[in-house]
């Protein structure tokens, strides 16, 4: 798996488009960096820039961006609705794929050291990269904002982690760190009153608000410290503000762990509190990019609230989330641009096989090139079988006489959708693994060193080319189990569809087995070969047993 790191620098400029593009371009022009999003805000006078790539490429892109921002942005002339402290206000690294949080912490420290040394800008580390507990929170570091730095930097406790301990009026300071995926999320209100929006923020954010007595005075503890009333949502930061561009107030939210407080919970809680204040939530917006899973969670939540099953295709879940959250309220929400997985996928040079039409895929299959081939077709059969199992389950939802099967069929629909998507990914995985194997065979072999390197590359690529169909074979057994459930408890008029689900899943199993076995011929005698062959034999036997059970159920009904 390729290593993929996301970097999300926020710069203190949201109005000058030429300047914004120059700063973003400094990162985008770095080899190995893919620029995903540039999201400026005129009222906040801030732009969120998102790019991804291999760790070292992203590190270089981040340095170039910070350098360009320091050249072009003059903080002495800056003012905006969003808190800020420097030309590049904050620059976090976020693990996406194949990268640990520890690796992102190391990236943050390497970048901080270089920025402090080469650019002579004060650098503070935050979140997972923080060197002391009081600097873990960005809000704590940013207390007093840009204007407070002359006084803060003169105090020993505010010595930067890197760079000079002196105030630079033009550039301010930069905060660099490593964190989990942060979702910047704004909830729209039918009011222009910022104070009302902030009252909602005080109730929902984790830090809550200061406790006050009946006379409105802040309540203190025995040591004279101000007491707080905790907010309703964990891992949630929030403020209220007014955005002139939209002509309405918003609750501006940062969800620092969307698996603890998901988007839909933040939205529903804002709606509940707003209603108690006589306000109405009109929609919401996502600033920057959002993980696909966050919207899938929201889609499932709202479908279930509507009394519907969540075992529907991924695009339907995304659509349910977009509609229910009102993500088109103040600006169009384009999934292909705003969902990080879709954005990365859309920038791949070669189109995916699964994106082709049926005719185009069949045409590509029939050409003289060896890929796509049987492995991709086997995976496609698995996707079709899982899709049919999901369909039969969905058709049974709410039907009279099937009440006892509803829970099991709902589970079947959800699991079948997940398997279907995995099989579809396997269509391209199989072709990609075959292409890597062919590339290994084309390596030079004139010298002993070249021959040894070629042999090792072929061995590794062959093992990988074997693991892909083995994974397909494993999933085919799961797909057959779902077909069996659909055939046994699904809508009787659709039992033939369940039967076809079993047939296509069996074709998937048999085809994947063939591909495992032919690849193992090139790995004779290894422990990997023995273990893989034994597992493949066992899986195929189980697949055939389950396919026979599906066929028996179908024939009993239609004979």
H and E order: EEHEEHEHEHHEEHEEEEHEHHHHHHHHHH
Q: Identify the CATH homologous superfamily of the largest domain.
A: Formiminotetrahydrofolate cyclodeaminase monomer, up-and-down helical bundle
Strand content: 5-15%
Q: Residue-averaged pLDDT, rounded?
A: 91
Q: What percent of residues adopt helix (DSSP H or I)?
A: 40-55%
Q: Given the structure, what is the number of helices?
A: 17
Q: Return residue spans where pLDDT drops below 50 for at least 5 consecutive residues.
A: none
Tally of DSSP β-strands: 13
Q: What class, by secondary structure content?
A: alpha+beta
What name does the CATH topology of the largest domain carry?
A: Four Helix Bundle (Hemerythrin (Met), subunit A)
CATH architecture of the largest domain: Up-down Bundle
Which word captures the global form? globular
Major sheet size, sense and barrel closure: 7 strands, mixed
- Distance N terminus to C terminus? 49 Å
Structurally, the number of domains stands at 3
What's the CATH class label of the largest domain? Mainly Alpha
Please give the radius of gyration in angstroms. Answer: 28 Å
Protein name: Formimidoyltransferase-cyclodeaminase
InterPro entries: Cyclodeamin/CycHdrlase, Formiminotransferase_C, Formiminotransferase_C_sf, Formiminotransferase_cat, Formiminotransferase_N, Formiminotransferase_N_sf, FormiminoTrfase_cat_dom_sf, Formintransfe-cycloase-like_sf
Function: Folate-dependent enzyme, that displays both transferase and deaminase activity. Serves to channel one-carbon units from formiminoglutamate to the folate pool.
Pathway: Amino-acid degradation; L-histidine degradation into L-glutamate; L-glutamate from N-formimidoyl-L-glutamate (transferase route): step 1/1
